[in-house]
Design a protein that fits this description.
Blueprint (H helix, E strand, L loop, with lengths): L2 E2 L8 E4 L1 E5 L26 E9 L7 H5 L13 H11 L6 E6 L5 E10 H14 L3 E6 L2 E2 L1 E3 L10 H4 L7 H5 L8 E6 L16 E2 L4 H4 L33 H10 L16 E6 L6 E2 H11 L16 E4 L1 E4 L4 H12 L3 E5 L10 E2 L7 E6 L17 E4 L7 E6 L8 E6 L2 H18 L5 H10 L18 H9 L7 E3 L11 E2 L5 E6 L6 E8 L4 E8 L4 E7 L5 E5 L7 E6 L6 E11 L3 H4 L1 E7 L1
Parallel strand pairs: 2-9, 10-12, 10-14, 11-12, 14-16, 16-18, 18-19, 22-24, 23-25
Antiparallel strand pairs: 2-15, 3-21, 4-6, 4-7, 5-6, 8-13, 15-17, 20-21, 24-31, 25-30, 26-29, 26-31, 27-28, 27-30
Helix pairs in contact: 7-10, 8-9, 10-12, 11-12
């Protein structure tokens, strides 16, 4: 579990490469395949700068009804920022000649602050650090970085989709389709939006456009319910000094086609999970998209609450993010991912296309995601693909001479005719995995995000060619569906042992993947479990209460200090994770607390899965 690649500034970029368009002439998006390893053009990329900060105050929480019921403060969205707090921000900004104003709040409860000009991300990070150090009321502050869709173009309908059928480098999809087609599953594509396409007719559900900035949206307005893609073409220098002009990529449409293009309709291409539906979430436009918009897209798509936006009709069980940029995983994105996982949504992200260690690519390096590397037709690592210990699995992304064919649009700037084109990149590998996750969940909807990851890895097949740092193997669609249908997973099952109401009496859990059968004995009961977490490992805890009860989940460090929590409502799954960033094994304490509902041996049952 990790995250996808994200630019250090506020904008994410596409992870694909366009090639030959079929039936509509030549279509190109992103960088030509021949330029995958070329040096970057001279000049300042828009993603190296930002004119925004994200500031979260300790006494301002996300707009969550349960939090309010528990007595926590209302979301920051309830009122404008206090003048005294804005004054503190402006005082800090004066050192750089900056003035500040509040733009809006986001689904995490944080506020987005606009500066009067762009500064480097490094300067913004220093300013954010100074703010946090100087104001005890700030929980965290960080640059609102620009990220872009991860992209890479190449060349040439089912006979050309080697990525599905090839016995060496493909995913062995036809065998999976005998068992699962994705029926009932919704996959959110957090990307550039979508174009109506004959091969996606009836496959697209109501989505949302989260791009607040009209200079990025290219549609003349801010956030609204129209997630269609008007095109993300750019003029020379528009995205930074020295940056070349680009045609519209229609990146989200290409990704959506891989996931759920109509199949057996006698038209175009097939989709991995062709009976699943796509929820388009538009966050990327001209020059990319802001972290804050992407975070709200994650929250909304997974069923969370975003101020000013109607809740999604039904949450997406899977999120696909074929986008990213450089740098560490930021707190805003991590919190949004944590929330999505707590609501049971699986987050799949592209590892990135810089041929570097994925630890430098966000959100692929975030905790709790399934990070996907790209392989070529020989089953080895694609020349551009990122790699490293944070990669979970690999899937076909294409490479020189063998790209990934999917739905597209022939317009170079604004929309044109329906078309098909071959792209390559980790952007293309990722929807293969998101589609397989949809197949898995369609046969076993009770799988948690951790279950999905574990079974996806355990069923992956060995690489037929060199792919160091590409995770557990190439995703095998048929084997993954079998794993979802079976008992799957690793570890063992144990029962909670009372009394474990304190840290000092915590039940020890020693095997990764262990499921604990527990009971809330009374309304005052609390249960502790201790795990020895190895250096560099992430402890993931998933609490599943009985359907009528509300129990909450907390994780504490070795000193007994709370590091994270999940407090969803009755019958809802709570998930939380914590990483040991040190060089030695340390204990972590997981606590289950009664909030409301049943108690006792019959009505107080829950399960707690612990993995690391």
């Amino acid at each position: 579990m990790k995250s996808q690649k994200s630019m250090y500034p506020a904008v994410l970029k596409l992870c694909a490469v366009a090639v030959l368009g079929l039936g509509a002439g030549f279509v190109q998006a992103g960088v030509p395949a021949t330029a995958v390893t070329a040096s970057a053009a001279q000049g300042v990329d828009v993603t190296a700068e930002t004119d925004r900060l994200i500031v979260k105050y300790k006494d301002e929480s996300a707009p969550d009804a349960k939090s309010v019921a528990k007595g926590l403060s209302r979301a920051a969205a309830a009122s404008p920022m206090a003048a005294s707090r804005l004054a503190v921000l402006n005082t800090a900004g004066r050192k750089l000649g900056l003035t500040m104003k509040e733009l809006h709040t986001i689904g995490t409860g944080a506020r987005v602050i606009q500066m009067n000009r762009k500064i480097s991300v490094a300067e913004a990070a220093k300013l954010a650090a100074d703010l946090t150090a100087g104001d005890a009321s700030i929980e965290y502050a960080e640059p609102d970085r620009i990220k872009k869709p991860m992209f890479t173009p190449n060349d040439p309908y089912f006979s050309q989709q080697w990525d599905y059928t090839d016995t060496v480098g493909g995913m062995r999809l036809p065998a999976a389709w005998d068992k699962a087609t994705g029926t009932g599953i919704r996959v959110a594509v957090i990307d550039t939006g979508y174009r109506p396409h004959v091969d996606l007719q009836g496959q697209i559900l109501a989505g949302y456009d989260f791009i607040a900035d009209t200079t990025i949206s290219n549609d003349g307005n801010g956030r609204d319910s129209d997630a269609s893609d008007p095109g993300d073409w750019t003029a020379a220098g528009q995205c930074g000094t020295g940056q070349a002009a680009t045609n519209s990529s229609w990146h989200g449409t290409h990704v959506a086609g891989t996931i759920a293009a109509l199949t057996n309709n006698g038209i175009g291409v097939a989709g991995v999970a062709y009976n699943a539906k796509v929820v388009p979430v538009r966050v990327l436009g001209q020059c990319g998209g802001y972290t804050s918009d992407i975070a709200d897209g994650i929250i909304w798509a997974s069923g969370g609450t975003v101020s000013g936006v109607p809740n999604i009709a039904a949450r997406a069980q899977v999120i696909n993010m074929s986008l990213g940029g450089g740098g560490a995983c930021d707190t805003t994105t991590q919190n949004a991912i944590n929330g999505a996982r707590s609501r049971g949504t699986v987050v799949v992200v592209a590892a990135g296309n810089e041929s570097q260690n994925v630890s430098n690519s966000s959100p692929a390096n975030c905790s709790g995601v399934i990070a996907v590397a790209a392989t070529n037709k020989s089953g080895g690592r694609a020349s551009y693909s990122n790699y490293g210990t944070l990669v979970d699995v690999a899937a076909p992304g294409g490479d020189s001479g063998a790209a990934i064919l999917s739905t597209l649009n022939a317009g170079t700037k604004g929309p044109g005719a329906d078309s098909y084109a071959g792209y390559m990149g980790t952007s293309m590998a990722t929807p293969h995995v998101a589609g397989v996750v949809a197949l898995m969940l369609s046969v076993n909807p009770n799988l948690t995000p951790d279950d999905v990851e574990s079974r996806l890895k355990s069923s992956a097949r060995a690489f037929p060619a060199s792919c160091s740092g590409c995770g557990a193997g190439i995703v095998d669609a048929s084997a993954a569906v079998d794993a979802a249908l079976g008992t799957g997973g690793t570890g063992t099952t144990i029962s909670e042992t009372e009394s474990n109401n304190t840290i000092s009496t915590a039940n020890a859990v020693t095997t990764a993947g262990t499921t604990v059968n527990g009971t809330m004995g009374s309304t005052t009961d609390t249960d502790y479990f201790v795990v020895q977490v190895p250096a560099g490992k992430t402890l993931s805890a998933t609490l599943t209460p009985n359907s009528t009860s509300d129990y909450d989940l907390y994780i504490y460090n070795s000193a007994g200090t709370q590091v994270t929590s999940s407090t969803n409502g009755a019958g809802s799954i709570d998930s939380a994770s914590a990483t040991n960033t040190g060089s030695t094994t340390v204990p972590a304490y997981v606590r289950v607390v009664y909030y409301s509902g049943g108690t006792g041996s019959t009505s107080g049952k829950y399960t707690l899965k612990l993995s690391w």
